Target: Pyridoxal phosphate homeostasis protein
Amino acid sequence: MPDLAQRLADVDFRIGEAARAAGRDPGELTRIVVTKFHPASLVRELHALGVRDLGENRQQELSAKAEETSDLPDTRWHFIGQAQTNKARAIRRAAAVVHSVDRERLADALDAAAEPGDAVLDVLVQVNLTDDAGRGGVSPDGIEPLAERIAAAATLRLRGVMAVAPLDEAPVAAFERLAGYSDRVRAVVPEATWISAGMTGDFAEAIACGATHLRIGSAITGPRPPRA
Ligand SMILES: *Cc1c(COP(=O)(O)O)cnc(C)c1O
Model:
């Protein structure tokens, strides 16, 4: 079984290949390592290997791990999961970026959770690429109102769009739709150029379709242990 350093190097090699195949500069891509279910000790190992961008999809786990590793310099935590509005303050305290803003009430709660001296919070609009409203993400017809709401929030900065590919569709078809949604967000906020897409199974396709932020877990961390 290859070790963590080998798996990380292998994924970075494959990211570089996919970028070059798409005529893109690998240096414009941010690889976020998703550490969910894994202990804080894995975050330390990743940090020692040069990883600075880390992702979690549950607020409690994010808060605990960020706290346990707060001595590590230059880490940036990305929150990528479903968020409850009553957890907005905790998310803001731990995360530098929230990828999963999918409704106006959540944008409002994150904005209201700012405390004096807080940095502006980078956020992305999560778009639902499926017909199943339970999958998370705003439905495409709600993109502009949500983008406008975020743009009007003094303590939030809209950086782009995020999505998870549906299970029952070729990832390229889904990510091409996402690129169109990115265009629509940029019509509201021109500097919102980030596209957060691509996981272990589909990051090469996401890169081909313009992804700028890849959220990669198990290909790097190995299989996830069962949730405690
Ligand atoms: C877990 C998770 C990932 C990473 O998944 P892998 O398939 O392990 O790479 C990416 N994005 C979200 C939203 C996740 O919850």
Q: What stands out?
A: Residues 34, 36, 57, 80-81, 164, 199-201, 215-219 surround pyridoxal-5'-phosphate (CB under 6 Å). The CA atoms of residues 13 and 165 lie 22 Å apart. The chain has a mean pLDDT of 96.
